[in-house]
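Q: Sequence in, structure out?
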Amino acid sequence: MTTRRRSTALIGDDNKVVAGGKTVTWRTLHKLPQLPSPAAVLVDNGADALAAVRHHAVHGTELLVATTSRVDLSMREELADSGFAIVIAKGDEHSVEPAKLKRVEESGRAWLLTSGSTGRPTRIGHTLESLTTVTNQQQPRTWLLPYSPGTYAWWQVVTISLTQADQGLVVIEPSELEIWPSIAAAHGVTAASGTPTFWRQTIYRDTDALTKVPLEQITLGGEPVDQTILDRLRELFPKARISWIYASSEVGASIVVHDGKAGFPKAWLDRKPTGERPALSVAGDELVIASPHHGAGMDGAVHTGDRVEFVDDRVLITGRLDSDEINVGGSKVSAGVVRSVLLAHPGVAWARVFARKAPLVGRMVAAEVVANPNLGPITADDLVQWCSHRLPDYGVPRRIKLLDEIPQKETLKSDV
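A: Exactly. Output:
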Protein backbone atom coordinates (compact mmCIF):
# COMPACT_ATOMS: atom_id res chain seq x y z
CA MET A 1 0.00 0.00 0.00
CA THR A 2 1.38 3.41 -0.96
CA THR A 3 1.93 5.90 1.85
CA ARG A 4 1.16 9.35 0.59
CA ARG A 5 2.14 12.66 2.08
CA ARG A 6 0.48 16.06 2.00
CA SER A 7 3.64 17.98 1.29
CA THR A 8 2.67 21.66 1.45
CA ALA A 9 0.43 23.47 3.91
CA LEU A 10 -2.61 24.89 2.13
CA ILE A 11 -2.40 28.25 3.87
CA GLY A 12 -4.13 29.87 0.89
CA ASP A 13 -7.24 27.66 1.01
CA ASP A 14 -9.46 30.68 1.65
CA ASN A 15 -7.91 32.89 -1.03
CA LYS A 16 -10.25 34.16 -3.71
CA VAL A 17 -10.08 32.39 -7.07
CA VAL A 18 -11.81 33.84 -10.14
CA ALA A 19 -12.09 31.27 -12.93
CA GLY A 20 -14.59 30.54 -15.65
CA GLY A 21 -16.73 33.52 -14.68
CA LYS A 22 -17.14 32.28 -11.10
CA THR A 23 -15.63 33.61 -7.87
CA VAL A 24 -14.80 30.86 -5.39
CA THR A 25 -11.92 29.97 -3.08
CA TRP A 26 -9.35 27.20 -3.26
CA ARG A 27 -11.41 25.39 -0.65
CA THR A 28 -14.65 25.67 -2.62
CA LEU A 29 -13.29 24.81 -6.06
CA HIS A 30 -15.29 22.00 -7.59
CA LYS A 31 -13.86 18.77 -6.25
CA LEU A 32 -12.53 16.11 -8.55
CA PRO A 33 -13.47 12.58 -7.52
CA GLN A 34 -10.65 10.40 -6.21
CA LEU A 35 -8.21 10.17 -9.10
CA PRO A 36 -5.92 7.31 -9.99
CA SER A 37 -2.24 7.86 -9.30
CA PRO A 38 -0.05 8.42 -11.25
CA ALA A 39 -2.39 10.49 -13.42
CA ALA A 40 -1.95 12.86 -16.35
CA VAL A 41 -4.87 15.26 -16.03
CA LEU A 42 -5.64 17.01 -19.32
CA VAL A 43 -7.74 20.16 -19.15
CA ASP A 44 -9.32 22.78 -21.38
CA ASN A 45 -9.69 25.49 -18.74
CA GLY A 46 -7.96 26.93 -15.72
CA ALA A 47 -10.56 25.93 -13.13
CA ASP A 48 -10.10 22.21 -13.87
CA ALA A 49 -6.33 22.61 -13.68
CA LEU A 50 -6.54 24.29 -10.27
CA ALA A 51 -8.91 21.58 -9.01
CA ALA A 52 -6.35 18.95 -10.06
CA VAL A 53 -3.58 20.78 -8.19
CA ARG A 54 -5.59 21.03 -4.98
CA HIS A 55 -6.49 17.35 -5.23
CA HIS A 56 -2.79 16.57 -5.61
CA ALA A 57 -1.86 18.76 -2.63
CA VAL A 58 -4.51 17.22 -0.38
CA HIS A 59 -4.01 13.57 -1.33
CA GLY A 60 -0.29 13.48 -2.18
CA THR A 61 -0.86 11.84 -5.55
CA GLU A 62 1.54 11.74 -8.49
CA LEU A 63 0.30 14.29 -11.01
CA LEU A 64 1.00 15.71 -14.42
CA VAL A 65 -1.36 18.49 -15.51
CA ALA A 66 -1.39 19.99 -19.01
CA THR A 67 -3.78 21.31 -21.61
CA THR A 68 -5.24 18.85 -24.08
CA SER A 69 -3.71 20.85 -26.92
CA ARG A 70 -0.18 20.25 -25.62
CA VAL A 71 -0.59 16.47 -25.35
CA ASP A 72 -1.20 14.82 -28.69
CA LEU A 73 -2.21 11.17 -29.17
CA SER A 74 1.40 10.05 -29.43
CA MET A 75 2.25 11.71 -26.12
CA ARG A 76 -0.83 10.18 -24.50
CA GLU A 77 0.40 6.75 -25.59
CA GLU A 78 3.83 7.53 -24.21
CA LEU A 79 2.40 8.61 -20.87
CA ALA A 80 0.14 5.54 -20.64
CA ASP A 81 3.12 3.30 -21.40
CA SER A 82 5.00 5.06 -18.55
CA GLY A 83 2.34 4.24 -15.98
CA PHE A 84 0.06 7.30 -16.15
CA ALA A 85 -3.70 7.03 -16.26
CA ILE A 86 -5.02 9.63 -18.72
CA VAL A 87 -7.75 11.76 -17.14
CA ILE A 88 -9.80 14.12 -19.31
CA ALA A 89 -11.23 16.65 -16.85
CA LYS A 90 -14.33 18.65 -17.70
CA GLY A 91 -15.83 20.25 -14.61
CA ASP A 92 -17.53 17.70 -12.39
CA GLU A 93 -17.26 15.10 -15.16
CA HIS A 94 -14.14 13.27 -16.21
CA SER A 95 -13.08 10.24 -18.18
CA VAL A 96 -10.21 7.91 -17.32
CA GLU A 97 -8.05 5.80 -19.61
CA PRO A 98 -6.17 3.32 -17.40
CA ALA A 99 -2.39 3.19 -17.51
CA LYS A 100 -0.87 0.48 -19.68
CA LEU A 101 1.95 -0.07 -17.20
CA LYS A 102 1.34 -0.74 -13.53
CA ARG A 103 4.09 0.75 -11.37
CA VAL A 104 4.63 2.11 -7.90
CA GLU A 105 3.63 5.75 -7.70
CA GLU A 106 6.04 8.46 -6.59
CA SER A 107 4.08 10.04 -3.78
CA GLY A 108 3.94 13.84 -4.01
CA ARG A 109 5.62 14.00 -7.41
CA ALA A 110 4.44 16.77 -9.76
CA TRP A 111 5.54 16.43 -13.39
CA LEU A 112 5.98 19.28 -15.85
CA LEU A 113 6.12 18.97 -19.62
CA THR A 114 8.82 20.97 -21.33
CA SER A 115 9.96 21.06 -24.95
CA GLY A 116 13.51 19.86 -25.42
CA SER A 117 15.89 20.80 -28.21
CA THR A 118 13.91 18.63 -30.64
CA GLY A 119 10.61 20.27 -29.70
CA ARG A 120 9.35 16.96 -28.34
CA PRO A 121 7.90 17.39 -24.83
CA THR A 122 9.95 15.83 -22.04
CA ARG A 123 9.00 15.31 -18.38
CA ILE A 124 10.71 17.07 -15.51
CA GLY A 125 9.88 15.94 -11.97
CA HIS A 126 9.21 18.32 -9.09
CA THR A 127 7.35 18.44 -5.79
CA LEU A 128 5.17 21.21 -4.40
CA GLU A 129 8.12 22.15 -2.19
CA SER A 130 10.50 22.59 -5.13
CA LEU A 131 7.86 24.50 -7.11
CA THR A 132 7.12 26.81 -4.18
CA THR A 133 9.96 29.32 -4.50
CA VAL A 134 8.25 32.31 -2.85
CA THR A 135 8.37 31.46 0.84
CA ASN A 136 8.69 34.87 2.54
CA GLN A 137 5.41 36.35 3.75
CA GLN A 138 3.90 38.53 1.01
CA GLN A 139 1.77 41.64 1.24
CA PRO A 140 -1.85 41.05 0.15
CA ARG A 141 -2.16 40.83 -3.63
CA THR A 142 -4.49 39.61 -6.35
CA TRP A 143 -2.52 37.82 -9.07
CA LEU A 144 -3.31 37.51 -12.75
CA LEU A 145 -2.84 33.95 -14.04
CA PRO A 146 -2.57 34.07 -17.86
CA TYR A 147 -0.19 31.13 -18.33
CA SER A 148 -1.02 27.78 -19.89
CA PRO A 149 -1.83 25.20 -17.17
CA GLY A 150 1.04 22.93 -16.20
CA THR A 151 3.90 25.17 -17.36
CA TYR A 152 6.58 26.17 -14.87
CA ALA A 153 5.48 29.83 -14.87
CA TRP A 154 1.88 28.72 -14.21
CA TRP A 155 2.99 26.64 -11.23
CA GLN A 156 4.94 29.61 -9.85
CA VAL A 157 1.85 31.81 -9.64
CA VAL A 158 -0.37 28.94 -8.47
CA THR A 159 1.91 28.00 -5.56
CA ILE A 160 2.02 31.62 -4.34
CA SER A 161 -1.77 31.59 -4.00
CA LEU A 162 -1.93 28.05 -2.61
CA THR A 163 0.72 28.49 0.09
CA GLN A 164 0.40 32.18 1.08
CA ALA A 165 -2.45 34.02 2.76
CA ASP A 166 -4.17 36.93 1.00
CA GLN A 167 -2.95 36.00 -2.49
CA GLY A 168 -5.96 35.87 -4.80
CA LEU A 169 -5.99 34.52 -8.35
CA VAL A 170 -7.75 35.73 -11.48
CA VAL A 171 -7.48 33.06 -14.19
CA ILE A 172 -7.31 34.23 -17.79
CA GLU A 173 -8.35 31.71 -20.43
CA PRO A 174 -6.86 31.82 -23.97
CA SER A 175 -10.12 33.28 -25.30
CA GLU A 176 -9.79 36.16 -22.81
CA LEU A 177 -6.22 37.21 -23.57
CA GLU A 178 -7.26 40.11 -25.78
CA ILE A 179 -9.46 41.61 -23.05
CA TRP A 180 -7.56 40.59 -19.93
CA PRO A 181 -6.97 44.20 -18.74
CA SER A 182 -10.71 44.83 -18.40
CA ILE A 183 -11.15 41.55 -16.46
CA ALA A 184 -8.15 42.38 -14.27
CA ALA A 185 -9.40 45.88 -13.53
CA ALA A 186 -12.86 44.56 -12.62
CA HIS A 187 -11.37 42.14 -10.06
CA GLY A 188 -8.71 44.46 -8.67
CA VAL A 189 -5.64 42.62 -9.93
CA THR A 190 -2.54 44.17 -8.35
CA ALA A 191 0.14 41.71 -9.54
CA ALA A 192 0.70 40.20 -12.97
CA SER A 193 3.34 37.93 -14.44
CA GLY A 194 3.84 37.43 -18.17
CA THR A 195 6.40 37.02 -20.90
CA PRO A 196 7.84 40.09 -22.66
CA THR A 197 5.71 39.09 -25.65
CA PHE A 198 2.61 39.07 -23.42
CA TRP A 199 3.35 42.59 -22.18
CA ARG A 200 4.19 43.88 -25.67
CA GLN A 201 1.01 42.33 -27.03
CA THR A 202 -1.07 44.06 -24.37
CA ILE A 203 0.57 47.46 -24.90
CA TYR A 204 0.12 47.05 -28.66
CA ARG A 205 -3.57 46.25 -28.37
CA ASP A 206 -4.80 48.75 -25.78
CA THR A 207 -2.43 50.79 -23.63
CA ASP A 208 -5.27 52.78 -22.08
CA ALA A 209 -7.02 49.63 -20.84
CA LEU A 210 -3.76 48.32 -19.39
CA THR A 211 -3.10 51.47 -17.36
CA LYS A 212 -6.50 51.11 -15.68
CA VAL A 213 -5.27 47.93 -13.94
CA PRO A 214 -4.00 48.89 -10.44
CA LEU A 215 -0.71 47.01 -10.77
CA GLU A 216 1.77 47.13 -7.89
CA GLN A 217 3.92 44.17 -9.00
CA ILE A 218 4.86 43.44 -12.63
CA THR A 219 6.93 40.37 -13.45
CA LEU A 220 8.50 39.30 -16.74
CA GLY A 221 10.05 35.96 -17.64
CA GLY A 222 10.11 33.07 -20.08
CA GLU A 223 11.98 34.97 -22.81
CA PRO A 224 14.99 37.30 -23.05
CA VAL A 225 14.11 40.56 -21.30
CA ASP A 226 15.38 43.74 -22.95
CA GLN A 227 15.69 47.27 -21.59
CA THR A 228 13.03 48.69 -23.91
CA ILE A 229 10.13 46.70 -22.44
CA LEU A 230 11.32 47.36 -18.88
CA ASP A 231 11.47 51.10 -19.58
CA ARG A 232 8.04 51.09 -21.24
CA LEU A 233 6.42 49.36 -18.28
CA ARG A 234 8.14 51.76 -15.89
CA GLU A 235 6.73 54.65 -17.92
CA LEU A 236 3.21 53.21 -17.68
CA PHE A 237 3.46 52.13 -14.02
CA PRO A 238 5.94 54.45 -12.28
CA LYS A 239 5.02 53.25 -8.77
CA ALA A 240 4.99 49.48 -9.43
CA ARG A 241 7.84 47.11 -8.61
CA ILE A 242 9.03 45.67 -11.91
CA SER A 243 10.93 42.38 -11.78
CA TRP A 244 12.27 39.90 -14.26
CA ILE A 245 12.89 36.24 -13.50
CA TYR A 246 15.05 33.62 -15.15
CA ALA A 247 13.36 30.28 -14.58
CA SER A 248 12.99 26.93 -16.26
CA SER A 249 11.49 23.54 -15.48
CA GLU A 250 15.01 22.15 -15.12
CA VAL A 251 16.63 24.65 -12.73
CA GLY A 252 13.58 26.39 -11.31
CA ALA A 253 13.43 30.09 -10.51
CA SER A 254 17.13 30.95 -10.38
CA ILE A 255 17.60 34.67 -11.12
CA VAL A 256 15.35 37.46 -9.85
CA VAL A 257 16.17 41.09 -10.69
CA HIS A 258 14.29 44.11 -9.29
CA ASP A 259 16.54 47.02 -10.29
CA GLY A 260 14.78 47.86 -13.55
CA LYS A 261 17.75 46.87 -15.68
CA ALA A 262 18.03 44.14 -18.30
CA GLY A 263 20.47 41.38 -17.41
CA PHE A 264 21.92 40.75 -13.98
CA PRO A 265 25.04 42.12 -12.25
CA LYS A 266 28.31 40.52 -13.31
CA ALA A 267 29.20 40.38 -9.61
CA TRP A 268 26.60 37.62 -9.18
CA LEU A 269 28.74 35.20 -11.17
CA ASP A 270 30.76 32.62 -9.25
CA ARG A 271 29.36 33.62 -5.86
CA LYS A 272 29.18 30.90 -3.27
CA PRO A 273 25.60 29.56 -3.15
CA THR A 274 23.85 30.07 0.19
CA GLY A 275 20.36 28.94 1.15
CA GLU A 276 18.00 29.89 -1.67
CA ARG A 277 20.73 31.53 -3.76
CA PRO A 278 21.89 29.50 -6.79
CA ALA A 279 25.42 29.33 -8.18
CA LEU A 280 25.69 31.20 -11.50
CA SER A 281 28.58 30.83 -13.92
CA VAL A 282 29.38 31.09 -17.61
CA ALA A 283 31.11 28.40 -19.68
CA GLY A 284 32.12 29.84 -23.03
CA ASP A 285 28.99 31.81 -23.93
CA GLU A 286 26.60 29.53 -22.01
CA LEU A 287 24.83 30.23 -18.74
CA VAL A 288 25.43 27.48 -16.15
CA ILE A 289 23.28 27.23 -13.01
CA ALA A 290 23.31 25.08 -9.89
CA SER A 291 19.96 25.79 -8.27
CA PRO A 292 18.26 24.75 -5.02
CA HIS A 293 14.95 24.74 -6.93
CA HIS A 294 16.03 22.23 -9.56
CA GLY A 295 13.94 19.42 -10.96
CA ALA A 296 14.51 15.78 -10.05
CA GLY A 297 17.92 14.59 -11.21
CA MET A 298 19.02 18.12 -12.12
CA ASP A 299 21.20 18.78 -9.07
CA GLY A 300 24.65 20.23 -9.58
CA ALA A 301 25.74 22.52 -12.41
CA VAL A 302 23.27 22.48 -15.31
CA HIS A 303 24.21 23.84 -18.73
CA THR A 304 21.10 25.82 -19.62
CA GLY A 305 21.60 26.14 -23.38
CA ASP A 306 21.11 29.92 -23.08
CA ARG A 307 23.66 32.32 -24.53
CA VAL A 308 24.95 35.33 -22.60
CA GLU A 309 26.83 38.50 -23.48
CA PHE A 310 28.70 40.89 -21.19
CA VAL A 311 27.77 44.56 -21.50
CA ASP A 312 29.54 46.84 -19.02
CA ASP A 313 28.80 45.40 -15.58
CA ARG A 314 25.78 43.34 -16.68
CA VAL A 315 25.28 39.82 -17.97
CA LEU A 316 22.60 39.77 -20.68
CA ILE A 317 20.76 36.59 -21.65
CA THR A 318 20.31 36.96 -25.41
CA GLY A 319 18.69 33.68 -26.51
CA ARG A 320 19.31 30.01 -27.17
CA LEU A 321 22.82 28.90 -28.10
CA ASP A 322 21.58 26.95 -31.10
CA SER A 323 19.77 29.94 -32.64
CA ASP A 324 21.11 33.18 -31.16
CA GLU A 325 24.50 33.30 -32.88
CA ILE A 326 24.39 34.15 -36.58
CA ASN A 327 27.54 33.59 -38.65
CA VAL A 328 27.71 36.05 -41.54
CA GLY A 329 30.70 35.19 -43.71
CA GLY A 330 32.80 34.31 -40.66
CA SER A 331 31.67 37.28 -38.55
CA LYS A 332 29.38 36.40 -35.67
CA VAL A 333 26.50 38.49 -34.34
CA SER A 334 23.91 37.84 -31.64
CA ALA A 335 20.30 37.72 -32.84
CA GLY A 336 19.32 38.97 -29.38
CA VAL A 337 21.52 42.04 -29.68
CA VAL A 338 20.08 42.85 -33.11
CA ARG A 339 16.57 42.36 -31.72
CA SER A 340 17.28 44.78 -28.87
CA VAL A 341 18.47 47.40 -31.37
CA LEU A 342 15.28 47.02 -33.39
CA LEU A 343 13.09 47.16 -30.26
CA ALA A 344 14.79 50.38 -29.20
CA HIS A 345 13.32 52.08 -32.29
CA PRO A 346 10.24 54.00 -31.09
CA GLY A 347 8.24 52.78 -34.07
CA VAL A 348 8.77 49.07 -33.30
CA ALA A 349 6.36 47.15 -31.04
CA TRP A 350 7.89 43.68 -31.52
CA ALA A 351 10.72 42.05 -33.45
CA ARG A 352 12.12 38.62 -34.25
CA VAL A 353 15.64 38.17 -35.66
CA PHE A 354 16.92 35.04 -37.39
CA ALA A 355 19.41 33.76 -39.94
CA ARG A 356 18.57 33.38 -43.61
CA LYS A 357 20.56 31.71 -46.36
CA ALA A 358 22.50 34.10 -48.57
CA PRO A 359 24.90 33.79 -51.50
CA LEU A 360 28.62 34.34 -50.90
CA VAL A 361 28.42 34.83 -47.11
CA GLY A 362 26.29 31.72 -46.41
CA ARG A 363 23.96 33.44 -43.91
CA MET A 364 22.58 36.92 -43.47
CA VAL A 365 20.56 38.57 -40.73
CA ALA A 366 16.79 38.81 -41.32
CA ALA A 367 13.94 40.09 -39.17
CA GLU A 368 10.19 40.27 -38.74
CA VAL A 369 8.79 43.43 -37.18
CA VAL A 370 5.45 44.72 -35.92
CA ALA A 371 5.17 48.50 -36.02
CA ASN A 372 3.95 50.62 -33.14
CA PRO A 373 0.37 51.60 -34.14
CA ASN A 374 0.51 54.84 -32.16
CA LEU A 375 3.30 56.33 -34.28
CA GLY A 376 3.63 57.11 -37.95
CA PRO A 377 4.32 54.37 -40.51
CA ILE A 378 7.83 52.93 -40.76
CA THR A 379 9.46 51.07 -43.63
CA ALA A 380 12.04 48.34 -43.83
CA ASP A 381 14.49 50.92 -45.21
CA ASP A 382 13.95 53.10 -42.12
CA LEU A 383 14.86 50.18 -39.89
CA VAL A 384 17.89 49.20 -41.94
CA GLN A 385 19.18 52.74 -41.61
CA TRP A 386 18.48 52.73 -37.86
CA CYS A 387 20.44 49.50 -37.42
CA SER A 388 23.31 50.61 -39.65
CA HIS A 389 24.14 53.38 -37.15
CA ARG A 390 24.14 50.97 -34.19
CA LEU A 391 25.48 47.64 -35.46
CA PRO A 392 28.45 46.45 -37.48
CA ASP A 393 27.65 46.06 -41.17
CA TYR A 394 27.41 42.26 -40.97
CA GLY A 395 24.82 42.56 -38.14
CA VAL A 396 22.40 44.82 -40.01
CA PRO A 397 19.22 42.97 -41.10
CA ARG A 398 19.12 42.77 -44.90
CA ARG A 399 15.58 41.39 -45.11
CA ILE A 400 12.86 42.89 -42.90
CA LYS A 401 9.24 41.78 -43.12
CA LEU A 402 6.53 43.92 -41.53
CA LEU A 403 3.76 41.90 -39.83
CA ASP A 404 0.27 43.09 -38.92
CA GLU A 405 0.08 41.38 -35.50
CA ILE A 406 2.43 40.16 -32.79
CA PRO A 407 2.56 36.34 -32.98
CA GLN A 408 2.05 34.58 -29.66
CA LYS A 409 2.00 30.87 -28.80
CA GLU A 410 0.00 29.07 -26.14
CA THR A 411 2.93 29.56 -23.76
CA LEU A 412 2.62 33.37 -24.21
CA LYS A 413 5.96 33.31 -26.02
CA SER A 414 6.87 34.13 -29.58
CA ASP A 415 9.70 32.57 -31.57
CA VAL A 416 12.50 34.85 -30.45
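Residues 283 and 409 are 31 Å apart (CA to CA).
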